[in-house]
């Protein structure tokens, strides 16, 4: 069983975490390693639900904060192979290079180092959760909110998602919709007997390609919307006119919109098309005017910006718990084949979190 050494420095710990492969739905090994590393720490209560590990202090402090991070990653690449991670120089900067270094095992390493604090200034709930990178129904925090909502209770939450060690407020919503096109199957030597559903997709794709994506100003931050085709399927054989074709579309919408408004917007881009919602997670407004968030930003003294990806800040906002994103790694390199994180940034993030909790 792979193991983690919590006494190692935060960069080495990040490397250890990354080298335990944990693509979504395959997090058992990393959850086992985290649970095994935390269980001997006598100041923590450690709980396991599926492949989500929860650890809490019970020091009777006035405030409880959550430090949360997901332990899954998007799939690996083979060319270039992005596991095992490498520590190397890129453009004169020392980086950890490989899957998970940005999204988000550097943040998880910072959580684990903070878990060693025996006398933090606040009570802390650490959440290491499964299946964040996939459809919302699998999300470990979603499952925890259903099974043990009390485990999410807190006055403030920090999601250790990549932010370049700045604070990123709120997050955009994400919706996946399918447009299902119908045709008539026939022999491809005699296409006049059928109707090609894949050919019909060009109208949908042309509308998406022509669409101008908006920038929306919400409570002082600019969120860049995105409406993109992310998949297309159809065809059963190389000599059959396809009778169906499905275009999968991902809409990333600013947090001034709820799900209904987001769907209505997609409909304006694709008038008359029947839209089938496959997955949906609403966003969260920045909430940086809330006292808890202001105190965090002031304590860290870092710049603020918008979170363009979706994160579980949205879940905490829904629960009425102020939450922000703060962690090492450039979000522009999340999910990228060249995913890499400057080692210095992982150390900076660790120091900032430890200072805040001291
Ligand atoms: N259920 C959603 C979950 C997607 C989560 C993912 N989040 C990030 O990559 C955060 C890092 C960042 O971009 O800043 C995402 O936004 O894709 C889904 O499946 O879409």
Automatic annotation (TrEMBL):
EC number: 3.5.1.18
A biological-process GO annotation: L-arginine biosynthetic process
Molecular function in Gene Ontology: acetylornithine deacetylase activity; metal ion binding; succinyl-diaminopimelate desuccinylase activity
Keywords: Hydrolase, Metal-binding
Superkingdom assignment: Bacteria
Keyword Iron-sulfur attached: no
Name this polypeptide is given: Succinyl-diaminopimelate desuccinylase
Domain Peptidase M20 dimerisation: 172-270
Classification lineage: Bacteria, Bacillati, Actinomycetota, Actinomycetes, Micrococcales
Principal EC category: hydrolase
């Amino acid at each position: 069983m792979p193991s983690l050494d919590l006494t190692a420095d935060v960069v080495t710990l990040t490397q250890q975490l990354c080298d335990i492969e944990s693509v979504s739905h395959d997090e058992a090994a990393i959850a086992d390693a985290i649970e095994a590393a935390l269980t001997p720490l006598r100041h923590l209560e450690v709980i396991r639900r599926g492949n989500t590990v929860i650890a809490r202090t019970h020091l009777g402090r006035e405030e409880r904060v959550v430090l949360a991070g997901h332990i899954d990653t998007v799939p690996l690449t083979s060319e270039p192979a992005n596991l095992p991670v490498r520590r190397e120089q890129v453009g004169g900067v020392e980086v950890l290079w490989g899957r998970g270094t940005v999204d988000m095992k550097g943040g998880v390493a910072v959580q684990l180092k903070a878990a060693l604090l025996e006398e933090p200034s606040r009570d802390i709930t650490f959440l290491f959760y499964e299946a964040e990178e996939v459809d919302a129904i699998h999300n470990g925090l979603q499952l925890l909110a259903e099974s043990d909502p009390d485990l999410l209770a807190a006055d403030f939450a920090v999601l250790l998602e990549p932010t370049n060690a700045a604070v990123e407020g709120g997050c955009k919503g994400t919706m996946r919709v399918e447009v299902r096109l119908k045709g008539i199957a026939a022999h491809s030597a005699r296409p006049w007997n059928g109707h090609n559903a894949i050919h019909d997709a060009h109208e949908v794709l042309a509308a998406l390609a022509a669409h101008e994506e908006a920038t929306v100003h919400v409570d002082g931050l600019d969120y860049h919307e995105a409406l993109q085709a992310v998949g297309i399927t159809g065809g059963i054989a190389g000599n059959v006119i396809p009778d169906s074709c499905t275009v999968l579309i991902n809409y990333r919408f600013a947090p001034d919109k709820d799900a209904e408004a987001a769907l209505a917007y997609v409909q304006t881009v694709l008038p008359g098309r029947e839209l089938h919602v496959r997955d949906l997670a609403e966003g969260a407004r920045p909430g940086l005017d809330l006292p808890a968030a202001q105190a965090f930003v002031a304590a860290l003294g870092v710049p603020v910006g918008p979170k363009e990806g979706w994160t579980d800040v949205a879940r905490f906002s829904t629960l009425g718990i102020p939450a922000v994103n703060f962690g090492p790694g450039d979000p522009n390199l999340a999910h990228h084949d060249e995913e890499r994180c400057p080692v210095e940034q992982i150390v900076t993030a660790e120091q900032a979190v430890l200072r805040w909790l001291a």
